[in-house]
Amino acid sequence: MHKFPTFSLTPCKTMLQTIPSTMKAQDKDRVSCYFTKVGRNANLERLQYNYLFPEISERELRHIKKYPNAKVISLGIGDTTEPIPEIIASSMANYARSLSTPQGYKGYGAEQGNKDLRKAVAETFYKDMGIKDSEVFISDGSQCDISRLQMLFGSNVSIAVQDPSFPAYIDTGVITGQTGDYEKGSGRYQNIAYMECGPENNFFPDLPKTDRTDIIFFCSPNNPTGHASSREQLEQLVEFAQQNGSIIVYDSAYAVYITDGPRSIYEIPGARKVAIEVSSFSKIAGFTGVRLGWTVVPKELVYSNGFPVINDFNRIVCTCFNGASNIAQAGGLACLSSDGFKAVLSNVNYYKENAEILMNTFTSLGLRVYGGVNAPYVWVHFPGSNSWDVFNEILEKTHIITVPGSGFGPGGREFIRVTAFSHRENILEASERLRSFLS
Amino acid sequence: MSVIIHQNLSTSISSSTSTFLGHNNLKSIKCSNVSIPGRISGVIKCVATPSAEKTAYKTKVSRNENMGKLQAGYLFPEIARRRAAHMLKYPDAQVISLGIGDTTEPIPEVITSAMAKRSYALSTVEGYTGYGAEQGEKQLRAAIAKTYYENLGIEEDDIFVSDGAKSDISRLQVLFGSKVTMAVQDPSYPAYVDSSVILGQTGQFQKDVEKYGNIEYMKCTPENGFFPDLSAIRRTDIIFFCSPNNPTGYAASREQLTRLVEFAKENGSIIVFDSAYALYISDDNPRSIFEIPGAKEVSMEVSSFSKYAGFTGVRLGWTAIPKELLYSDGFPVAKDFNRIVCTCFNGASNIAQAGGLACVSPEGIKSRHSIRLVLRYTEEKNAPYVWIYFPGQSSWDVFSEILEKTHVVTTPGSGFGPGGEGFIRVSAFGHRENVLEACRRFKQLYK
């Protein structure tokens, strides 16, 4: 996927290049620049860099320009590559066509999502866990859901994230005003509890050493480390949340990649009282562009004053959103049919096989590799290195895009994330190039 | 059994909004029967809780106090609920929905076949695409810029494609943050005020005037020709302005918009111009704020395919932010919005975007034109809404009376702000037969 940087020059030419926190036009460059009197949102000023993935895209683009004849292999952004199974695509096509007919035309859908789809999600993923369709909110994907959850929580809550983790938790935390300033030395924003997850602690945080926060963002299988928490670990997490009166936001976007272990936080007793679960069709069904996901908010989850979180989340969904695309929802429903689910699982297995190939490649080179078994990411350790340097070197010498671990937090600084989302031939080709380069 | 009372259920029939929802004392309530006396008019659901959890566990997370400021549920789900309740009460009545502005006519085939084609393409190796650019597909951005902003100096990279205006409004609020002040027309589309409350820009709701503290309400009434008296408006950072207006249907003239732009310029304010209904304008009034000289330095524009192409369920819209729009420190607003879009969003559905591209193709434009003609069944020639005055009456009372006596769902004006009290909004989105039948019934009621 190429996401092109979209800015050409503004009338004030100095505005664009890097973004120091305060920036004024130089008098010599001023081209009748009118400034409004609206103050820039200080929270946005606080953000240190571009969002990670557009940054990776930009570097890919620059590299392609530099080496127009190189065959660049993208194992960076976790973007699915295999076509959506026909049974699902044709149900979306049929639904689209039906919108041209009087009997088939549909206008606004329920903001919470199509009833049948909500039911199907509850039955497919939360069978026997007591999650009802009324607790499932269909969305246009996890990235949007995470933001809406942050709007829900507001600026006066404290958050904890795994370190490393999917950057949206931290970035939306900054944008929402939950954090303090960035500290260059530590690579951390103030007021966030960073729960280190590394080889030393088996990629599960040392909870007794973790400060209490209101919200705990927890992704399992983890992006980027690939670690899927065990039942025992999740029980610890739920207990920790209970003791502290915290709310877990459990990101299960990759749960379907788990070979062995809990897939939903609600498999853990007591989780309904402390956890929200966010998930997505992106990595299940290749819906990265189609846009479909869901969030579960159990009715038992209440604020300190007893007010149900689900009531407020429903209000957010009705006010700040207008439902996922009805065509995407039709696709989601087809995904969860028995044939549809079988078909998407075959793609999931394809990517898992890719992950295995990558694991073997790196292992054979004597590198310490993590993840890859229960997740479509491989997390490779280059001890003592700076991950951006390793990223650049790999890119320069093998024309392979990866993601530098420090993009996911300071805990990732010596690691590289490699995605298993690619055509098989590219995975094999990449493996060969890496073998040549790294051996 | 515990009773979960959804916040957006209980609006009283009278025009004053319910205080029920301001109460934060929801505990487990025994539920022996479903009816609860008082002002609740919605559906109460009894939810079984496991017997082991008799004393309800509470987290130690404080509820976002901004959510607590909201007075009632969002307006349109409330209308939907009342409609549903009415249909239960009168199962044989032919209820006609002219409440929520929901499109009813099928989408032209040229557009749906493009979406079907894209859907199929996703199942092929050559046609499969994953993540799209968060700002939208290049072709679509270019097509929007060309179709709606040709010669207005708005370019492809000024366009941010979205899943609709409602989502965009919230993302813009997230962009602006809690420390800005805002002005809205009164009455106006409720999402501006509600998202402002949620973001913490406002004070508490003041029951006597039915306004939230710290919002500047710009009254638009028959007396001032539905355009605010700008000389009486306090400066705010942001001005939400919708033209043609929802709910009044009034489309501001070129002269009025010029004054608005001047007002914004003098005050250093940013106009968020909502042009969701611009294509309904049949006369010479401006369709885009950017038709006004100087507008690019003070405004952005939000628009939507919902009412153009019947995309209310498909979900597609856009926001245009000129490069010239700068914060007080000179930083380009578009750059921060780009960051929001990349972090808090992941692009509109690629299938919907394929539909959007077909919409703005020559065949697409032709096909939609015929729909608009069908829909223009109001005296209001510039908008698909009719704004009817019932002097001295409470709009919720009129709403209820109309519903009870004619089985027609409308929207009470006070749902759009205190300036809407005494008015009823009737949507023109309906099958022709239904609209005609509704008119017959109105004539019966008010003869």
List the helices and strands and how they pair.
The complex is a heterodimer of chains A (439) and B (447).
Chain A: H1 42-46, H2 52-66, E1 73-74, H3 86-98, H4 115-125, E2 136-139, H5 142-153, E3 159-163, H6 168-176, E4 182-183, E5 188-189, E6 192-196, E7 215-219, H7 231-244, E8 247-251, E9 275-280, H8 282-285, E10 293-296, H9 309-320, H10 326-335, H11 338-364, E11 368-371, E12 377-381, H12 387-398, E13 400-401, E14 403-404, E15 415-419, H13 424-438
Parallel strand pairs in A: 1-13, 3-6, 3-7, 7-8, 8-9
Antiparallel strand pairs in A: 2-10, 4-5, 9-10, 11-12, 12-15, 14-15
Helix pairs in contact in A: 3-10, 4-10, 5-6, 5-9, 11-13
Chain B: E1 2-4, E2 45-47, H1 65-69, H2 75-89, E3 96-97, H3 109-121, H4 138-149, E4 159-162, H5 165-176, E5 182-186, H6 190-198, E6 205-206, E7 211-212, E8 215-219, E9 238-242, H7 254-267, E10 270-274, E11 299-304, H8 306-309, E12 317-320, H9 333-344, H10 350-359, H11 362-375, E13 385-389, H12 395-406, E14 408-409, E15 411-412, E16 423-427, H13 432-446
